[in-house]
């Protein structure tokens, strides 16, 4: 089932349940899909990789907004953003644990012969490709810094 079909099905369920938070999240996904399809041109279909990147971007936006709201002492708004991020994350592939990410990063460091922070770009590039959709860039970056530093 395509992402668009899954989102539409979930939207119907959210409408019936009168779940405004889920509905807002799902509408954001639908809007992002339509925008991406328009930008992609004639085919109008998104690859799974493009869908995952789009969903990750939406989750990151929600989490960044929540962090800003928390800094400003607006906890209610922050909770709303985090709840929306949770709804969007349901459509992402299973995320890897930190231990699994560490193993992958360690093998990349071993393969490339990286020895210090000067090799971070090379390691991050390979790690980002290999872990695309299954790990957050910030988490990958933190682990790479820890291993190389």
Into which percentage range does the β-strand content fall? under 5%
Sheet of most strands = none
Count the E strands.
0
What's the shape?
Answer: globular
Give the terminus-to-terminus CA distance. 43 Å
The class by helix and strand makeup works out as mainly alpha
Number of helices: 7
Low-confidence regions:
none
Return the average pLDDT rounded to an integer. 88
**How large is the radius of gyration?**
18 Å
SSE succession: HHHHHHH
Helical percentage: over 70%
In short:
With 149 residues, the protein is mostly helical. The protein contains 7 helices and no strands. It has helices spanning 3-17, 20-40, 48-71, 75-89, 98-112, 120-130, 137-148.
Features:
about 150 residues, mainly alpha, about 75% helix, 7 helices, globular
Please tell me about this protein's structure.
There is one protein chain. By secondary structure, the protein is mainly α. The protein starts with a helix and ends with a helix. The protein has 7 helices and no strands. The chain is globular and about 55 Å long. It is 76% helix and 0% strand.
How are the SSEs ordered, and which strands pair?
Layout: H1 3-17, H2 20-40, H3 48-71, H4 75-89, H5 98-112, H6 120-130, H7 137-148
Helix pairs in contact: 1-2, 2-3, 2-4, 3-4, 5-6, 5-7, 6-7
């Amino acid at each position: 089932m395509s992402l668009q079909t899954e989102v539409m099905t979930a939207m119907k369920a959210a409408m019936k349940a009168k779940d405004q938070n889920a509905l807002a999240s799902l509408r954001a996904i639908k809007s992002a899909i339509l925008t991406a399809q328009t930008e992609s041109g004639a085919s109008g279909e998104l690859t799974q990789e493009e869908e995952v990147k789009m969903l990750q971007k939406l989750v990151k936006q929600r989490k960044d907004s929540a962090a800003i709201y928390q800094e400003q002492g607006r906890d209610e708004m922050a909770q709303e953003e985090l709840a929306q991020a949770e709804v969007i994350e349901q459509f992402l592939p299973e995320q890897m644990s930190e231990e699994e990410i560490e193993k992958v990063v360690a093998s990349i460091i071993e393969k490339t012969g990286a020895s210090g922070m000067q090799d971070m770009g090379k390691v991050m590039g390979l790690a980002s490709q290999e872990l695309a959709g299954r790990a957050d860039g910030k988490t990958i970056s933190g682990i790479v810094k820890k291993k190389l530093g």
